[in-house]
Amino acid sequence: MARLDANKATLVKDTLGKLIDRKLLASLEVCVRCGICAESCHYYLADPRPEHAPFYRSEQVRRLYRSLFDPIGRHLPWWVGAQRPTEESLAQLAEMAFSTCTLCRRCTLNCPSGCDTAQIMRAMRTVAVAAGLAPEMLVQLADASIAREEHLEDFKEIYLEQVRALEEEVREATGDPQAHIPVDVEGADILYVALSGAHTILPAAILFHEAGSNWTLSMFEASNYGVFLADTARAKRITERIVREAERLRVREVVVTDCGHAYTTLRWEAPNWFGKPFPFQVRSLIELVAGWISDGIITVDPTHNPEPVTYHDSCNLGRNSGLIEEPRTILRAVCQDFREMTPNREHNYCCGGGGGLVATPEWTDLRLKAGGPKAQQVRATGAQVVAASCDNCRIQLGDISEHYALGTRVVGLMELVVKALVPQRAKGHPLEADVA
Amino acid sequence: MSTLEVVTGVLALTGLAVCVVGLGWRVSGVQGRPFRWDVAPAKGSAARGVAYAFTLGMAPWAKESTRRHLLAYVRGILLHLAIFAGLAWLAASPWHAEVPKVVRLLTASVLTAGMAMGLAGFWMRRREPALRQLSTPDDYASLGLVTLFLATAALSAVAAWCLPGLWALSGLMLAYIPFGKLRHFVYFFYTRTFFGLLFGRRGVLESAR
Ligand code: SF4
Ligand code: SF4
C-alpha cells in the first residue's frame, strides 16, 4: 500500500475538514450499521453484494474520517475501523463515490436515523476532485461550460443561427407565422434555460408561444457538471453565468427546462452558495405547464397520446425538489392511459443514470446493471411509453429499454404535452398574461 | 452500606460524570461546526417536516425499509425502550427497598426482554454478510456493554445483592458512551431534524406539502 505523500495527505485532510459542517458530521456519526437501508439502493437491489449497500459505502468514507478527525480513530484505529488513506484506498474511494452512488437520497428517506449518505458521497467526490481523482469527462464538461461564458462572443452568432433554424418548426407546430424564439431580450418576464440541443428548446418554445408568455431564451445551458463533481467552486461559476444573465435582462423569473439536477441546483442549492435568495423566482417548466393546463391557458387533447404511458420520477425533481404532483397533473391531462410505477413519487427507484453516471462512459456496464430495478418497474406497468422529466433519466431509460428489451419508447414530458397540444392562440384564446 | 456498594456507587457516579462531560464535548463538536439554513424560498413546511421526522416518520409502516425489516426494526425499538427503562431503574436503584415488588418485577421483565433483543443483535450482526464484514470491535463492545447492563439491571431489580454489579457495569457503560458507537443517539436528534428540514421545506414529504 503506497502511503500518501505529505502534501496530498494534508490536502485530503483539509478538504474533508472544510466540508464537515453540522449536517455532514451528524451523518458521519449517526449510522449504527443496522443494515436496514440496503434494499433502498438500486445498486444493491440489482446486485445484492455487501459493497452495494448504502451503509457499506458510507462506512468506507467514515473510516477515512475517523482516521483523520476522531481521537479514538487516530489512536486506536483497529477498535473503530479507522483507516488512514493510502494512494490505493483513496483511488478506490473516489471510484466508489463517482460510480456506485447516484446521490439519489432514497436511502436517506429509508434510514430510521435519516442519515444522508448522499451528502457523505458528495463530500467524498469533493475530496476526489481535490486529489485529482475525478472522472476526466466530468471535469472537461464542467470546464467547457465555464469556457462558454468566457468565449461567448465566439459562440453567439452560431447559437443564434441554430435558434433561427428552429423557428420554422415552432411556426409549423403553432400555425402562427409570427411565432419566434426570443433570445437576449431585456425586460422579458421569463428567462428560459434549456439544455444543449433542440430537444429542450423546441417544445418549450411552442408552449411559451401558445401560452403567450413574455420570455427569452438563455445563452447558456442548464446542466451543471460542477454539481456532479461536487465541486462548489466550479458549480458556482457555472450557475453565475445564468444569474448574471437573469440580472442583466432584468427578468422576474428563471424557468429551468425539464432537467433534474439543473432544477435542484438553481432552485435549492445555488442560493446557499451565494448566501442569499436570488432576486428572481426559480421554477421548472413543469410547474409552469401544469399551471397553464389547470388554468386553461393551453388546451390539450389526451387522445393524441392514446398509448399506455408511465412516468419516471427523477430523483432530483421528486425526492430532492418536491416536484411530485405537477408532472402528474400534466400527464393526466395529456395522456389517455397514464399508469403509475410502483413505488412512485418520492419513493421511486433511481433509474441509475443520475449523479453524472450518464456522462461517464467507463461505468456504462455498472449503470446498466443498476438500472435493473427500474427496468422491472417499467415492465410491470405494461406501458409502451415512458415519460421522463430529466434529460439524464431520459438517456438512461432509453438505454435500459434497449438493454432489458423492454420495447418501450422514452419521451420527454414536454414532447407529450406538445403532441397533445391543440393550438388555440391563433383563435384568440386567453393568454397567460390575461389570466394572470 | 457495604464497602462494595460504596465503591461501585462511586464508579457509577464517575461513569456518569465522564459521560456528561464527554457528551458535552461531542455536542460542542457538532455545535462548533458551521450550519447554514437553506436560503431558497420554501415550497413546503420545515416545521411540519421536523414534526413528521420525530413522530409518524418513525412508525414501522412509514418506510419501505422498516416494513421490509420489521423484525429488525422492532428489535431496535424494544432494545432502546429497554435501555431507557434500564436507566430509569438505575436512577431509582439506590432506593431498591422502597420500590414496590410488582414494579420491580415488571421492570425486570422489560429489561430481560431488552437483554434478549441485545443478544439478538449479536446474531444479526453475524448473520448478515455486509454487517459481519463491517462490524468493528467497538460495535461488539457497545452491544455487549448494553446487553450486560440490561442483564444486571434485570437481575438487580429482583435481587438487591446484584446492585453493586449493576452500578459497576453502569459506570463502565456510561463512561464508554462518548467514545464509542453508543454516542450515536446524540447525533440522531440532529440527523432527524435535518431530515425534516430538508424534505419538509422542499415539499417532498406528503405531510409537509
Ligand atoms: S444508514 Fe441508517 S439504515 Fe443504513 S445502516 Fe446506517 S443507521 Fe442503519
Ligand atoms: S444515495 Fe441512492 S445511490 Fe447513493 S447509496 Fe443511497 S440509495 Fe444508493
Characteristics of this structure?
heterodimer, A: 436 residues, alpha/beta, Fumarate Reductase Iron-sulfur Protein, Chain B, domain 2, Rossmann fold, 3 domains, four-stranded parallel β-sheet, 8 strands, 53% helix, B: 209 residues, mainly alpha, globular
Structure description:
The complex is a heterodimer of chains A (436) and B (209). Chain A folds into three domains: 6-134, Fumarate Reductase Iron-sulfur Protein, Chain B, domain 2 (Orthogonal Bundle); 139-293, 3-Layer(aba) Sandwich (Rossmann fold); 296-420, Rossmann fold. In chain A, 53% of the residues lie in helices and 7% in strands. Chain A has 22 helices and eight strands. In chain A, strands 2-1-3-4 form a four-stranded parallel sheet. A four-stranded parallel sheet of chain A has the order 6-5-7-8, sandwiched between helices. Chain B is an all-alpha fold. Chain B is 73% helix and 0% strand. Chain B is built from nine helices and no strands. Chain B has helices at residues 3-31, 46-54, 64-68, 70-92, 101-127, 129-134, 137-158, 163-176, 184-201. The longest helix of chain B has 29 residues, at 3-31. The model of chain B has no long low-confidence stretch (mean pLDDT 96). Classes of the chains: A alpha/beta (436), B mainly alpha (209). The interface between A and B is large, with 57 and 58 residues. One iron/sulfur cluster (SF4) binds next to helix 4, helix 8 and helix 9 of chain A.
